[in-house]
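Note to self: the last two entries modelled the partners one at a time, which told us nothing about the interface. This time every component goes in together.
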Amino acid sequence: MNQGSAVSIQGLTLHAGTKCVLENADLRIEEGECVLLVGLSGAGKSLTMRLLLGLLHRRTPGFSVEGDVRIFGQPAEAPGRHEAGIVFQDFGLLDEWDVEENIRFGLDHRPEAPAKPGDLARSLMVEFDLPAGVRPAHLSGGMKQRCALARTLAYDPRLLLFDEPTSGLDPAMAAQVAGRIRATHDAHGKTTLVVTHDLTALRDIADRVILLDPRLKGFREVERDRVEAALETLRGPGGGVAAPQPRVVQSLAARGKRGALAFLDRTGRVVEGAALSAWALVPRWPRARWGWRYLLYDLRLTTLGSALLYVAVAGAILGLIVTWFTFSFLPFKPYTEPLLLDRVLGAIGFALFRIMAPGMTALLVAARNGAALSADLGHRAHSRQLEAMRSFGVAPERYLFTNALWAQLLGMPVLLAVNYLAARYASLAVFILVHPEQSTHFWAQEFDRFVLTGGALPEGMGWLVLKTELSALVIAAIAWFQGSSRKESGRDVASAVTRTIIWSTLAVLLVQLVIALAEFEPL
Amino acid sequence: MTSRRRIALGLGAWLILIPLCWRAGMRADPGAARTRRFLGHFFRAPLDLPIAPADAVALVPDAPIMIETPRGLLQVGRIGSGDDGSWRAVVFPEFADLLGPESALAWHATSGNLEWVFATLFPPERLDRIRRRSRAGWRREKRRFLVDIRPGLETLAGDLAKALEEALPVVLEEHREDLNALGRLFRDLAWRSHLRQVFQSVIWPRAVEASEPAVRAIQDEILDAFPVWALSWAVVVQALPFTDNARVKAKIGDFLREKALPIVRSHLPELKAAGAEVIREMLHDPRVTDAFSQAFQAFQSHPEVRAILTRLLDDWVVENGAFRAVLRDAWSRPALAEPLRRFLSAVEPDIRGIADEILLDEQRRGINPDLARVLRRQLLREDRKWARLIPGKPGGPPPSSLPVRAGGIR
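The predicted structure of the combined assembly is written out below.
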């Protein structure tokens, strides 16, 4: 073990599934070095980087990790460390915040908060020539990279990691990026590890070049001018990445067993997810400032703005349809209506309050908010925002899951109230139309007959709150688990959104059904 | 398309949509009356007036305040109660115009008993209409119906009588003991206790008196015709030895047959008239009628008599299979069924009219408001206690408080 090394990997064996990526591999990078890690596509460069960031460790599902990985003498997976920071290939910038706030995110999550984070953020913006008040979506590619670099520096890690920093850039731009990396390395006195396959642009900024050799399943240092030849050798026959394994045809029994195990695994995940959701309700925000900001963000996403209009319009249509069709298709209307007008109004009021408005709101929210949360989280997963958060020592669920749950818990009653009030007064409008001789106050008296029964709260308020809040939690939990899973493409995001809508709508229907059965005595 | 053109297109769309929506709204709500009512719900509060109930009035909180309209009762407010035990009348703002000087409340309790149901469903004018309709139908169809059904009824009566007649001997035979017992009971319960005394003291003397002229005439004529010499001779001859010992008996027999009986027969009309006269008199004699009434009462109310009669009737009528079969098949006989069908068909408009009178409102479009009241009271148990708003004089200021008087059952 070398306590003085910036990076120390000893006897590392890494399996991704059944594939062996590294076997008893060693690597050492000294403090202050600028090192290039090169290799062919699929050789394990990104996995190595994830190992160094602590994002990949012994407990990561689907991977097997043995050996010792240390950053500045500390185990890479140790919680709360901030020795390594990364600039992702696609930057992982937080879309909802502007440039300054992205930098503040890094600053605020340092273990020791700086004295004047605002000043520091602005000085970094000046240093990297970043505009104020602009969100990442409106930045050019170069600006995004500078922003990501500034944010990583704001976190003040001793080891800077760059993941394919020149990927997709033209040679001039790539040279500019390479220069900036070296300049930053020199100016900020960091240890730098650049993972790349673009030797042309980056070879000259490195002190050393390390090759990830798939034949050795390990690291070896190569001289800068011999790197291309080494890579060419690897690309040759028998030198490249291991050929894909032949497809094994499984028997029906084996496939059945695998399916059953997969089913049980999913069931276990649901149970685990329920337990995690309950635990996630406890706010454990790393920074209160960002906790409130994310809560407000989730409230805006799930409750405020279009969601209110959405449930209001749906509620108005619900009230209109229910009242209009009840009065229009009342059996033997000329005979029954004079007898039962007050009871019919009471029944409509009761059904809207206890069954229809909660059911419709739950369904609408399951579709809208389920999709919104899942798409938001899916995009974060796809654009590596979640990994970026983890690289700052922040467990994303502490901001995103907890706040999604609370946004739903706080927002759903508001949405239900808006939906019910819209349905209620649409019902009044229809009543005025079909019964012009009656008072609107008679309508109110009878509409609330079975709801306001003299207690401090409306009848069945406990059940209403229970099914509303349970639906809210279920929607948020499904959106989190679907949205935050690993995403490799936009299609994965779309699939997650679709699955969220399907499962959350079914789940809230089930919640409404089960509670209705408990709430009302069977007929 | 350029941005400027798209803006123009959007503007044009709104310029078309807004007037269309406005026009549709005006068509749906001419004069915006409904819109005003809708908005009024949020801005016009009900009138809250203190009320002063009379001593006999026991108000119920939240009881409806109603007015009577041609379409039935219409709720215009409700009775409210304050925390201090005071009573309030909460009148819906749409009906505030009904309040004026001399406005009052009449407090009604609806018992729901049969009398109330009948009075509500059949107010005098409706009952009169129903009677007129039913009489008109019966008068119109009565003659034809009776003529049509008479042959059938006669045949039915004949068949029933035949069934009873055929069963009677068997029943009497089977119940000989019962009949004997019945005779004994009649003698004990009716004759000895009630009838014998009145017969001996009233009926018989009067019968003797009434028949006396005819009896005397018979007596005289018989005596005149009595063959004294022939009979005396017959006695003498019969007293002689070796003569016919039955000569006197034969002579008397001849006399009775040839003389006395024709004399009696010739006076029978007088005897019958006398008997009829006696019966007529006895029917108006309270001593006789009371005695018969008491005798009949004593006889028929005796448990044993009742039991015997019940057994007899059971076996004769109730358990009479032939009798029951005739009754059962009666309405399948065309002679009865067809006239009845024709009758019902002929009076159907009248029956329907009567049913409509009870079921439908005056426009014949919905339920009769009175029937609705009865059903709400009886089935739903609603409107059992309610206040009727008596509108005040129009144009005046609303009253500062409303008196409540007992309105009785309504």
